[in-house]
Amino acid sequence: MGNTTKNQHYVPQFILNNWATKEQMWTLNKNTNKIFKTNIENICSKNYLYDIKSPFGGLITKNEYEKRFAKYEGEMADYIRDLLNIFDLNTTDALVIRKEEREKLLNFAISIATRSPKMIEYFVERTDISEEMPNLINEFHEFINSFTQIYNIEVSKDECEKMLNKLDGLRAIAPEDESNITLGLFNKFVGLDFNKGYAYILKSENETFFANNMFSITGVTETGNKIIYMPLSPKYYFIYSIEKIDCWDKNKINVVDDDYCYWLINNTSCDCNFVFSNSKEKLEKLINSKLY
């Protein structure tokens, strides 16, 4: 398909690389309990995830959304690297983030949370072009089948509707202005008011790990406090919290301790088959955990 990107990542490679050694990362297959090393090119990705294939060959979307994500990731890679360099000079275990930084990191966390295969499928299933724009389906169906005689392929109206539903979903998760990703999209699914709340970068005592389909996640603490959690590296992670967190005791805030991470990875709604870490020993400990 020419100079198009086939293997499209839903977790940016610059983030994955923070767990890798020479672009290799330790991986646990939860179905077989086997631990192995793999290249970051092979994980948290799917062929043509952000594209719609033409029934006649090629891509209708022409890598448009993949290019948008790549541009956005390039900007965030420099920003996050500089932010963590500042933290390296800080002796505290927590860094309270200003409003401008909060919005930038929150947008990034939500962008990652909404672009996994599972979430794209979720949005597509809840998009119904036939109700919103029934004439558009008919027009698109007629247009596609105007090429039938050339390619000797007939495309059903249902197939046309599926393509339009995915296109509508992609437009939602990859707007031209990435800063608008939070506006209305995630609010109605999570019920968070992004004009309120607090944001922090925390230092991890137990080098973090993560699972496919669950890199940036939402959670609820024992006190009912809603949070958004996103690891930035094995040492640092970002947390957005509705309530102000005054105590950094990991057992009290219940978001950074091992038990909480294990629960997240084993939560069936996450539907994850692989767990990733920069440490083989960490994954072995996970397998032997009573919570696994």
Describe the SSE topology.
Blueprint: E1 7-9, H1 13-16, E2 24-29, E3 34-39, E4 45-47, H2 64-88, E5 94-96, H3 99-114, H4 117-125, H5 129-132, H6 134-145, H7 148-151, H8 157-173, H9 187-190, E6 198-203, E7 210-211, E8 217-220, E9 226-231, E10 236-241, H10 250-253, H11 258-266, E11 274-277, H12 280-288
Antiparallel strand pairs: 1-4, 2-3, 2-11, 5-6, 6-10, 7-11, 8-9, 9-10
Helix pairs in contact: 4-8, 6-8
Q: What does the average pLDDT come to?
A: 75
Spans with pLDDT under 50 lasting ≥5 residues? 248-269
| Number of strand elements | 11
N-to-C span: 42 Å
Strand content: 15-25%
Query: Could you say which structural class the secondary elements and strand pairing correspond to?
Result: alpha+beta
Biggest pleated sheet: 5 strands, antiparallel
Estimate the global geometry from the Cα principal axes. globular
For the CA atoms, what is the radius of gyration? 21 Å
Q: What share of residues is helical?
A: 40-55%
Give the strand line-up of the largest sheet.
Answer: 5-6-10-9-8
Number of H/I helices: 12
Structure description:
This protein is of the alpha+beta class. It folds into two domains: 13-115 and 192-288, no CATH class; 117-173, no CATH class. Helices cover 40% and strands 17% of the residues. The chain has twelve helices and eleven strands. The strands form three sheets. It has a five-stranded antiparallel β-sheet, covered by helices on one side. A four-stranded antiparallel β-sheet has the order 3-2-11-7, with helices on one face. Helix 4 crosses helix 8 and helix 6 crosses helix 8 (157-173). The longest helix has 25 residues, at 64-88. It is globular, with a radius of gyration of 21 Å.
